[in-house]
Amino acid sequence: MCTLEKRGQLFLLKLAGDGEHRLNPTLLDSITSAITQIRSDPSSSQSVLITTSHGKFFSNGYDLALAESDPSLRVVMDSKLRSLVADLISLPMPTIAAVTGHASAAGLVLAMSHDYVLMRRDRGFLYMSELDIELVIPPWFAAMIRMKIGSPAARRDVMLTAEKVTAERGLEMGIVDSSYGSAAETVEGAVKLGEELVRRGVDGHVYGGMREALLKQVLHTIGSNESASNRMRNSGSKLYYVLKNSVIGETVIKHLKKEQEDNAENFKFCTGFGGIGGILRYQLDMNAFDEDLDVYDDESD
């Protein structure tokens, strides 16, 4: 769960408790509810959001243990985080992540969804763990990383070596805007920055619109993934996934019956974090197919 406090024109959103703040449906709903509350405040367009956490973790990413117990929750968590990130991008105010502990995988994406990232340097790291846990990174994660990390070498180190990035290293990479000696100092730094941004007196709606324009590709990728996930999840009892390897011309067809959807491996094939193409590791030529041909429901007319 999270808590929300208003200090003048600052909204302070805290991920509560001393756990890992895994992004399960309950926590994601709680954060989204807080963002909705902030957006509805009459002074929101003259305010600043600061997101931080209690304990040693900012967020340790998706709740993978929960997803193992119910594979359908992989899609639910990804969908809810995409919606939350889109909300943050469109929020009519500057946003600051005060990272006072580890931020891993989806937790790092959540932090990078803010305009500014402040981090303590005495503990914690930023860690895109997918390489180490053998999950292909979702395309919209990659879109966020491309936008937020300017150096190709830094992007390589984050994604393809799974470097555990300290605050000082994050400053070098351009991921972190400033670092502090403790958790308390990090939050204090975020409050100071937030107050400076409030004093500038920018129109939050203009600010949010400019952020949306800047992150247009991220929003587009989020929307594309949502559409694909919905087609996979909401189709009929028999599904055909058609993919083409553009290098050798091979066509791959995967057919799932309804009863097979309960199988974790089959579900991962269709709707796992990496998506079909990522798991197959094929070079795909999706332009060879109309969008409606991606999924077939042979019970439809």
UniProtKB/TrEMBL annotation:
Catalysis performed (reactions): a (3Z)-enoyl-CoA = a 4-saturated (2E)-enoyl-CoA; a (3E)-enoyl-CoA = a 4-saturated (2E)-enoyl-CoA
Matches recorded under SUPFAM superfamilies = ClpP/crotonase (SSF52096), L30e-like (SSF55315)
Listed GO MF terms: delta(3)-delta(2)-enoyl-CoA isomerase activity
Look at the named UniProt entry and state the broad enzyme category this protein falls under.
isomerase
Kindly name one Pfam family recorded for this protein. ECH_1
Q: Under which pathway is this protein filed?
A: Lipid metabolism; fatty acid beta-oxidation
Q: Which InterPro entries match?
A: ClpP/crotonase-like_dom_sf, Enoyl-CoA_hydra/iso, Ribosomal_eL30-like_sf
Q: Which GO terms describe its cellular component?
A: peroxisome
* Assigned EC number: 5.3.3.8
Report the domain of life of the source organism: Eukaryota
CDD domains with a match to the protein in the record: crotonase-like
Q: Which UniProt keywords apply?
A: Fatty acid metabolism, Isomerase, Lipid metabolism
Record-level GO BP terms:
fatty acid beta-oxidation
Gene3D superfamilies tied to this protein:
2-enoyl-CoA Hydratase, Chain A, domain 1 (3.90.226.10), 3.30.1330.30
Q: Which PANTHER family match?
A: ENOYL-COA DELTA ISOMERASE 1, PEROXISOMAL, ENOYL-COA HYDRATASE-RELATED
Query: What family, per the record?
Result: Belongs to the enoyl-CoA hydratase/isomerase family.
Identification of the protein by name: Delta(3)-Delta(2)-enoyl-CoA isomerase
Q: Which species does this protein come from?
A: Brassica oleracea
